[in-house]
Amino acid sequence: MTPAAPSHPSRPSRHSDPAPRQPAAPDTTAVRREFERIHGRAPHGVWAAPGRVNLIGEHTDYNDGFALPMALPQRTVLAARRRADGLLRLHSAQGDGRTTQLRVAELAPGAVPGWARYPAGVVWALRERGLPVGGADLYLDSTVPTGAGLSSSAALECAVAVAYDELYGLGLERPELARVAQYAENAFAGVPCGVMDQMASVCSAEGHALHLDSRSLEVRQVPFDLTGHGLRLLVLDTRVQHDLADGAYAALRAGCERAAKLLGLGALRDLTEPELPAALAALPAELVPLVRHVVTENARVEQAVARLAAGEPEALGPVLTAGHASLRDDYRVSCPETDLAVDTAVAAGALGARMTGGGFGGSVIALVPAAAAPAVAAAVAEAFAAAGFAAPAVLEAVPSAGAGRLDRAGPGPVGGTRPGPSDQLPGAIS
């Protein structure tokens, strides 16, 4: 798992505003100051990468399909300084107070335990590509909740990826950075995720959702103006922790790959809705619901993009709710807490709601009229209390910018560019 998240907001009352009570991102000045205290020198820069929510398109990315995520204001902030001695020194504000020290040349899958395997995995993945990267001092602080289905691991990986890209003058394009981070999570951390989380973290644009083709990595920025349409997107964290490295996620992916092979397809993305009935009839019973979910979920992504492109974000509601039903009944990755949050939110006035993320716990997103947001949040909290569940945490999802450097040009894309003449780092930095 990634470093533990900061404490969650308390349960909202019926008259409270459900907006997040934690800062959207750690303070850059404070991060620089802590870096100097821990590592004894000033960092060469400060970078950040966001968590994400996925509006629709769940478990489609590893099937070469489509997704519609957006970046969150909550993000992991990283101060970094290049080293010439091959040491990688890692310290997290959410850790146990100790600094992890590793030798870059000795990094290998399975050799780094705990949260440190995510940043170390990115350095290893860059070296696996033959890129000339070495050591660094890193200090991380994050406001992305962990285990909530908001891609805290991708935020951590992508912060390291964009920092290393600039520290070592690699000049990688955004999709390449996402692939590096995904490879780190797959091969080093042992989580067989698709690429959607990392693409959302590095490629998102403020005020937009990201229409992603997971096969080509082509993206389209789709305007998503919640405020202008009197809407809010709430994230209801059920506090049910999930760990995608525990085997259940891998089993789902393996089932999808088996089904594609039986159907003679490169991936389930190649199966269309009109072809679905015949395909399902040809598959073993245990694979039928997996395939039905993936094909119909790809179709829901296209429906959602069309409604946003038409300037009708409120029309997303039924698409979200239908997506949750598919995740619950076909993919079977929901749980009592996420189901209760969805049902209660819709009954209390949400236009639509669904589980977001890999499943087995995590968070629910609810699209709500702005005026109804406090009542929806309170209704979910009360339903959880009545059911004996832990009180959910609530934050607001605002379409935000992707990863970038904070202490020079502000947040925004840096991938695909090399430092300018005034920003060049010395060839050997100790």
Automatic annotation (TrEMBL):
Keyword annotations: ATP-binding, Carbohydrate metabolism, Cytoplasm, Galactose metabolism, Kinase, Magnesium, Metal-binding, Nucleotide-binding, Transferase
Q: Where does Mg(2+) bind?
A: S153, E185
Transmembrane stretches in the record are none
- For the ligand (substrate), the binding residues are E58, H59, T60, D61, Y249
Pathway involvement of the protein, from the record: Carbohydrate metabolism; galactose metabolism
Biased amino acid composition, Low complexity: 1-10
GO molecular function terms attached to this record? galactokinase activity
Primary localization class, coarse: cytoplasm
Where exactly is the site Transition state stabilizer?
R52
> Which residue range or ranges hold the GHMP kinase C-terminal domain?
308-385
What compartments host this protein? Cytoplasm
Its EC number is: 2.7.1.6
Keyword set includes ATP-binding: yes
Annotated binding of ATP, by residue: S92, G147, A148, G149, L150, S151, S152, S153
Q: Which reaction does it catalyse?
A: alpha-D-galactose + ATP = alpha-D-galactose 1-phosphate + ADP + H(+)
| Domain annotation Galactokinase N-terminal: ranges | 34-82
Q: Where is the GHMP kinase N-terminal domain?
A: 118-203
Q: Which InterPro entries match?
A: Galactokinase, Galactokinase_bac, Galactokinase_CS, GalKase_N, GHMP_kinase_C_dom, GHMP_kinase_C_sf, GHMP_kinase_N_dom, GHMP_knse_ATP-bd_CS
Active-site residues from the entry: D197 (proton acceptor)
Pfam families assigned to the protein according to its UniProt record, in alphabetical order: GalKase_gal_bdg, GHMP_kinases_C, GHMP_kinases_N
Renumbered to this chain, region (Disordered) spans 1-30, 406-430
The entry assigns this protein to a family as follows: Belongs to the GHMP kinase family. GalK subfamily.
Instruction: Tell me, in a sentence or two, what this protein's role is.
Output: Catalyzes the transfer of the gamma-phosphate of ATP to D-galactose to form alpha-D-galactose-1-phosphate (Gal-1-P).
Q: HAMAP family annotated for this entry?
A: Galactokinase (MF_00246)
Protein name as catalogued = Galactokinase
Question: What species does this protein belong to?
Answer: Streptomyces antimicrobicus
